[in-house]
């Protein structure tokens, strides 16, 4: 048991010795694991396998961890046993010590009481699922919705601003800035919807499967009742796993959710990258957008403004891509026989991606998207000088002649109208009738 000011005991001490490191378990996992222990204690008491007074003390101790107390009592590195046994025992020991302190006893045991009817193999994946669901529903999804709404607002604001399109980084036919931003809004919406659909697998919990999925050492009815208690505590609708063996031998719900997070990361990266290029300049870049000047961009060049929010989002996206690659590698190499042995890796990578994307989406919306302005004069000039305005002429005079007009205008730095008339392919009246930007933007 614990000694001195420490709430953890011998097994945690051994883990500190044998798994040194500075990357600790995410706080979301500590809180989720405490919640699982609370639900288990309540269930065990109801089923008559745990003294009610002890169960209440464990619940009280768990509430302290859920509230963020005793955070310094979880010193273990994330890089430990692939099952996460050391983390499970760290939580068990802290809860046992606090339960003993509440009841002024010394006999409440980390394994016999706190871990009653459970194992590392079913509690850790259960906690990963719960932590991810809570973090997504309370943070990531609402912030993606806010970002989508902000992009939709910009789309309406820029609805009549005509600009030149670009494909292959080259000039293309025109569209409106509002149409471009509507695409960004839809990307965020689609990625969020995919996450909501794909992450449904996280609502299946492995708790009650104990070591392998057979339910050994868990009383009859435990699996159903413990999930019911978890639902009461979280306000979500979790269900017992449809097949406990599958949920413990492989964590496919984590893998697929990570893939959906990757889609969000890539969507945000595309949007952030476009915005930083469209805001490049102010005199030697595209400079179509005027980005918020949040802070000095250089320690040596006065007055410089950099697209820092875009850069932040893109770095976050890169980290999330790395996390997804790590989860993929863990799933491919460590899902052997009856237990997935990269649970700590999965917990750390999945929760970090959710947390990072949530924070990045909020900051990007607040400090960038909300304050974006359009340089309408520059956008108009770019659109009017675009060689790709020749496109409608291809329907009237043929592709080859239209291409000849564009090449001549580019070579001589003249307007399309001047080149077309000089070549004798159209009259001035025909050109102005057929080449109409407003008709081209739909």
Give average pLDDT, whole number.
Answer: 97
Sheet with most strands: strand arrangement = 1-2
Strand % is 5-15%
CA-atom Rg in angstroms: 29 Å
CATH H-level name of the largest domain... which superfamily?
Answer: Fumarase/aspartase (Central domain)
The shape is elongated
Low-confidence segments, given as residue ranges, are none
Following the backbone from N to C, one meets helices and strands in this order, namely HHHHHHEEHEHEHHEHEEHEHHHHHH
Number of domains: 3
Structural class: mainly alpha
Notes on the structure:
With 442 residues, this protein is mainly alpha-helical. It has three domains: 10-116, Fumarase C, Chain B, domain 1, CATH 1.10.275; 124-160 and 173-376, Fumarase C, Chain A, domain 2; 386-440, Fumarase/aspartase (C-terminal domain) (Ribonucleotide Reductase Protein R1, domain 1, Orthogonal Bundle). The chain is built from 18 helices and eight strands. The strands form four sheets. A two-stranded antiparallel sheet has the order 1-2. A two-stranded parallel ribbon has the order 3-4. Strand 6 (335-336) and strand 7 (339-340) form a beta hairpin. The longest helix is centred in the N-terminal third of the chain and has 38 residues, at 120-157. The chain starts with 9 loop residues before the first helix and ends with a helix. The model has no long low-confidence stretch (mean pLDDT 97).
């Amino acid at each position: 048991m614990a000694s001195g000011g420490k709430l953890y005991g011998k097994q945690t001490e051994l883990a500190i010795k044998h798994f040194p490191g500075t990357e600790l378990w995410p706080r979301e996992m500590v809180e989720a694991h405490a919640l699982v222990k609370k639900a288990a204690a309540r269930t065990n008491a109801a089923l008559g396998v745990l003294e009610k007074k002890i169960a209440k003390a464990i619940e009280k101790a768990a509430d302290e961890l859920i509230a963020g107390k005793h955070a310094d009592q979880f010193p273990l590195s994330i890089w430990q046993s692939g099952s996460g046994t050391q983390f499970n025992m760290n939580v068990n020991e802290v809860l046992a010590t606090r339960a003993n302190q509440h009841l002024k006893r010394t006999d409440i045991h980390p394994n016999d009481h706190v871990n009653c009817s459970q194992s590392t193999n079913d509690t850790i994946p259960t906690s990963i699922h719960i932590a991810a669901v809570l973090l997504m529903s309370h943070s990531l999804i609402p912030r993606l919705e806010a970002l989508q709404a902000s992009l939709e607002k910009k789309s309406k604001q820029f609805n009549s601003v005509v600009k030149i399109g670009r494909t292959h980084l080259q000039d293309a036919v025109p569209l409106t800035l509002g149409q471009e931003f509507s695409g960004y809004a839809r990307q965020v919406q689609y990625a969020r919807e995919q996450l909501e659909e794909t992450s449904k697998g996280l609502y299946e919990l492995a708790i009650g499967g104990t070591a392998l999925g057979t339910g050994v050492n868990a009383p009859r009815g435990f699996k159903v009742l413990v999930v019911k208690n978890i639902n009461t505590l979280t306000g979500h609708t979790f269900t017992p796993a449809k097949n406990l063996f599958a949920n413990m031998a492989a964590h496919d719900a984590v893998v697929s959710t990570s893939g959906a997070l990757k889609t969000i990361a890539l969507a945000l990266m595309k949007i952030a990258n476009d915005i930083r290029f469209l805001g490049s300049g102010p005199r030697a870049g595209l400079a179509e957008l005027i980005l918020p000047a949040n802070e000095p961009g250089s320690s040596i060049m006065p007055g410089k403004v950099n697209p820092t929010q875009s850069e932040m989002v893109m770095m976050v996206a890169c980290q999330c891509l790395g996390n997804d690659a790590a989860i993929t590698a863990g799933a491919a190499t460590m899902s052997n026989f009856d237990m997935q042995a990269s649970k700590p890796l999965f917990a750390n990578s999945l929760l970090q991606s959710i947390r990072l994307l949530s924070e990045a989406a909020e900051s990007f919306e607040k400090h960038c998207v909300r304050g974006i302005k359009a340089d309408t004069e520059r956008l108009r000039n770019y659109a009017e000088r675009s060689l790709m305005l020749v496109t409608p002429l291809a329907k009237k005079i043929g592709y080859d002649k239209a291409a000849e007009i564009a090449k001549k205008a580019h070579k001589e730095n003249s307007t399309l109208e001047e080149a077309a008339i000089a070549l004798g392919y159209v009259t001035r009246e025909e050109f102005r009738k057929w080449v109409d930007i407003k008709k081209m933007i739909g």
